[in-house]
Amino acid sequence: MPELFTVQTPPDAWAMFARAFTPQVKIERIATVDALDRVLAERLMSPQDLPEFPRSTVDGYAVVAADTYGASPGLPAFLTVIGEVSMGQAATMSVGVGEAVLVHTGGMIPPGADAVVMVENTQQAGADAIEVMQPVSEGQSVILVGEDIRKGAAVLEPGRRLRPQDLGGLLALGITEIAVAAPPRVGIVSTGDEVVAPDQPVGPGQVRDINTATLGALARQAGGEAISYGIIPDDRAALEATAKRAHAECDIVVFSAGSSVSYRDMTADVIAGLGAPGVLVHGVSVKPGKPTILAVAGGKPVFGLPGNPVSAMVIFELFITPTISLLLGAASRRQTRVRARLARNIASDTGREDFVQVRLETRDGEVWAVPVFGKSNLIYTLVNAEGTVKIALDSNGVRAGEWVEVVLY
Amino acid sequence: MPELFTVQTPPDAWAMFARAFTPQVKIERIATVDALDRVLAERLMSPQDLPEFPRSTVDGYAVVAADTYGASPGLPAFLTVIGEVSMGQAATMSVGVGEAVLVHTGGMIPPGADAVVMVENTQQAGADAIEVMQPVSEGQSVILVGEDIRKGAAVLEPGRRLRPQDLGGLLALGITEIAVAAPPRVGIVSTGDEVVAPDQPVGPGQVRDINTATLGALARQAGGEAISYGIIPDDRAALEATAKRAHAECDIVVFSAGSSVSYRDMTADVIAGLGAPGVLVHGVSVKPGKPTILAVAGGKPVFGLPGNPVSAMVIFELFITPTISLLLGAASRRQTRVRARLARNIASDTGREDFVQVRLETRDGEVWAVPVFGKSNLIYTLVNAEGTVKIALDSNGVRAGEWVEVVLY
Hints:
The structure is a homodimer.
Chain A: H1 10-20, E1 27-31, E2 44-45, E3 55-56, E4 60-63, E5 77-84, E6 99-103, E7 115-118, E8 122-124, E9 129-132, E10 142-143, E11 154-156, H2 164-171, E12 177-181, E13 185-191, E14 195-196, E15 207-208, H3 211-221, E16 225-232, H4 236-249, E17 252-256, H5 261-272, E18 277-282, E19 286-287, E20 293-297, E21 300-305, H6 309-328, E22 336-342, E23 346-347, E24 353-363, E25 366-371, H7 379-383, E26 387-391, E27 397-398, E28 403-408
Parallel strand pairs in A: 5-6, 13-16, 13-17, 14-15, 17-21, 19-24, 22-25
Antiparallel strand pairs in A: 1-12, 2-11, 3-10, 4-6, 4-7, 5-9, 8-9, 18-20, 20-21, 22-28, 23-27, 24-25, 24-26, 26-28
Helix pairs in contact in A: 3-6, 4-5
């Protein structure tokens, strides 16, 4: 199988994958109040004007603005106070020429009034009258009907990752339940005779499983639900059985393949058996992460990742995080990027993307990206790093002192 | 009460608050696998070398490096293959001069060998022998004992927000349970006679509660647990009773006060009654958000936020998010910042920090920050914005075209 494939560049690999995969967003309805970080799956129009009544933005008197023109401390405008609008109550009176009504911040402005004079710019003139010492213009200190949002206007578009204020915007309109994308189920299958669960005793020649937890956390970060299928030994029948079950139960299947050639070939064969069109890419020109498999089987994306932790994480972010976004109907999650100067020369081959793990150091007020060297088999390469520098396909390296972009984890 | 206080600058307000507040991190033990985004609350040392045995990074033959010196396709080194180390098994043989043992990627390297020749650089020479066509140096393609992390070395420091790879680093060492900071309980009390729950019918003069959901989501984003105490009407006894309950049950209490002066004064009085030292700051020179209360009562932080949504969010990020970080024992959450050119003049008063909500637009390849104008009472000011530009205390404004820093939500 593998010998039929040639190594693809990451953009070509993604294009081949994307052509074969038609994402379908699964939808569920949830309470708006629980929808932080979820992806909206419907187009929402405002069912009402917000506010539905004109509101005051200050404590003061609702007036006819024209009554205050020319008012000054020396020559105040005299108005009769005909009542008060209590908070949470409808105004029961209307304001005519020469009249004023006491209103509170956020309260309803009575019909007839078109502005509010701040209480600080008035003084009492007997029990039921005030003097206005400063003019107000029409609309001053008033939130108009529909000024926040108009009835029928688009509230939020599908694909939006909901932020705290978005929940507020929906609830302000009484939209207490919304359609959001269900988190894609990401099945994670670890393989390898040498791999044991982290809570089990580990003997000579054995290592604890890292990738189930690390890849699961990456899947959750991307908006997916991680489902672990445990650790499968180097046994074709066992791997096939688990692969079929994960493929049936999940929206995406990820194999964290053993690192040796025999494991990788077996994983490729098993993926090929899951359905058409099968393996699309076997080998990507990226370092670390070359022995990567991209497949679509029966409409579902299936990935084979190298077993070593650095490669697995690089490839997850390169291909699986964007696939989860497709299944959420969302733009990719925002990456935090900082510019920094590279602290050491890094060589690379043209025709290959290199991902170098770096930590950041500030020297004389400048941010430097210091490569964390360490084989891609070492998890502490990732633990000790803060982000990744990509050396582009067409570059043969970057010199110390050059500016690079660091994508923070 | 309020008249005793003068408006403080944000840095002074924070300093007065921080002097009166001694954060105590509450600790809980959880499974490492569930600890994504949690804050580590213990100093962890590595209980072992990782790896505990030397491992191969390739498929090939474990050899004595010196045996291969000078080897070439024309003059290969001839070695006797004395066995194979299976994955997950301890090596049962040792490698002497002139000998080689077949090993797989990630597998154990037998005693005596100090390098691995990649299988691609060998050829079979009979049933039990190989020819090595290229020399290897000592340590080549070998992960040494403790190369990932050494026994007794610091693994992670307390205060770390755990990332996917950090979970992997812990599990690789068999650390399956860890002490993390318990999420601070943030009690949110909404007040106002005009405020109704979002799922209730809303009459004239009434508005739906936004802040319980928005502030709750901000609290969760910061690493806290949000607890809603519902909507309390403008009734002193009711507010006092709820305040006492929230203060007893939570680590932080946040009042989203009604916007009118009477609400604000009542909130200040109720906070003052919760315990010593009480209200520390009443009024901060920030726009929007001036009528803010910072208090510490019986060792617990208590905040009074203006009721309008934009102010409430600005003040939450300014004071409450950092307070949650203190209670987590963590550095503040990372903010995503982008540089952009301001699309319009913005005036400001010296001695006041202004927070202007902006959306980003790319024009001719340059990013521009376009102010989203709208009164701070409008939730859609926040919904339509992507971030905030701060106009510094000592600035009287920023001109259109100048470069500013946008903190993205």
